[in-house]
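Researcher: Please predict.
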Amino acid sequence: MSEEINDTTEREPRSAESRETQTRRKPWQPPSSLDAPKAPAGYKYRWIRESILNQEDKSNMSKRIREGFEPVRASDHPDFEAPTIEDGKHAGVIGVGGLILAKIPEEIIAERKAYYKQVNADTMEAVDSQLMRESNPVMPIEKPLRSSRTTFGSRNNEETSS
């Protein structure tokens, strides 16, 4: 009987059973024309407008370049099959339908978000200030509350169930 207990069977190690090694087939779906390769560390990829109705959009491209965007060349991703602009100023850049793929450092994205968040806060403060100027002592206007809170259930139900 002790011989049966010591008899071990050949088993695969538990690490071989992990989800990473068991890949499940993804269901078919139509391909996106805006698929992009994985961005390098520290960068994000964005599609930016280069032309509209076959008319070059110089002002948008100039603005985006000044913001810190850099066009992504197909040669940067030789293993990724991507549509490429064949001729003109942006020859060799990944592009489709008037859009080109551009990269931007994540630090600039964070700074840009902070800037627009501050612009929004300043605008709301100006709106509130303008509203408070219209206040009348006979019918005062209270400062608007700009926060929200979500709760589930009611407090009355909690008190009665206790």
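Model: DSSP finds four helices and six strands in the chain.
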